[in-house]
Amino acid sequence: MKDFIFSNDFFRNLDAFVYTCGYETCEPGHSYGPALRSGYLIHYILGGTGRYKVNGKTYRLKEGDAFLICPDELIYYEADKKYPWVYTWIGFQGVKIREYLDRTSLLSEPVFHYGQDDRIRLCHEKMFEANQLKNNRDLIMNSILYEYLFLLVRKFPKEQISAVEKQAIYVEEALKYLETQYGSESITIQTVADYLGIDRSYLHRLFKKAVGASPQEYLLDLRIRKACSLLKQTELPVTIIALSVGYEDTLYFSRLFKRKKGVNPSDYRKGC
């Protein structure tokens, strides 16, 4: 007997979004597959038993266990004929999901156990509560998803992260930091390195190798690009634009701008 099913198309967030969640009390022997799924799903077993088959392996699962389904993997699962399972599920998609799950051990160990971690189990319940909302339901469900992913990473961390993966994470986090903090005059490459907890010279080498420019060069280009956008799209004074992109000294900003664009900010605006 199906007690609760909910699906949605929350495509507003391309990075990660919930596309389905549900709860089911299965009939004896109820099964799904063999089949492929288009998104990621995690089923959490509340009671009863069943089996899950993936990648040629069969797992017997019981209360407290959970199993991950990945896109385009042939899977099969079936409730026990005598003690059929009751489970909840959360399905999610997005361009960043694979990267987030790669921070966990779940991609290599698709069957796991929540144990006594009530916060993880509570995420399933909160999804159902969020479904009762009539407006802005996507926002709360996606926020729960991010919490859920965070808790999974913390409880089931990837045991070994390669040096290359660590370096890529440092560069990505540095880029995110610069993209959000470029308007602060006090930002320096040292502050970025401190934020990441790594040596400044090490950050410089990693960043230049990955991006093709030093962090300083990237920050300058970023600020000039943002200034160009403001000059084109607004009528704000140059002094305000300069401050908005991290330069309290308008004359210094104008010199940097002319060095990069060949004209001063006012002439650039006139030519737009």
Cα-based radius of gyration, to the nearest Å: 25 Å
CATH architecture grouping of the largest domain: Sandwich
- SS strand fraction: 15-25%
Average pLDDT metric: 89
Full CATH superfamily name of the largest domain: Regulatory protein AraC
DSSP strand count: 10
Ends: how far apart? 64 Å
Fraction of residues in helix: 40-55%
Taking the sheet with the most strands, its summary is: 6 strands, antiparallel
Per the CATH scheme, the topology name of the largest domain is Jelly Rolls
Alpha-beta classification: alpha+beta
What number of domains?
Answer: 3
Instruction: Please list the strands of the largest sheet in the order they lie side by side.
Output: 1-2-9-4-7-10
Q: Point out poorly predicted stretches.
A: 1-11
Shape: elongated
CATH class of the largest domain: Mainly Beta
List SSEs in N-to-C order.
Answer: EEEEEEEEEHEHHHHHHHHH
Number of helices: 10
What report would you give on this structure?
- There is one protein chain.
- This protein is an alpha+beta fold and 272 residues long.
- It folds into 3 domains: 4-155, Regulatory protein AraC (Jelly Rolls); 163-217, Arc Repressor Mutant, subunit A, CATH 1.10.10.60; 222-270, Arc Repressor Mutant, subunit A, CATH 1.10.10.60.
- The protein is 44% helix and 21% strand.
- Strand 5 (50-54) and strand 6 (57-61) form a beta hairpin.
- The longest helix has 19 residues, at 137-155.
- It is elongated, with a radius of gyration of 25 Å.
- The termini are far apart.
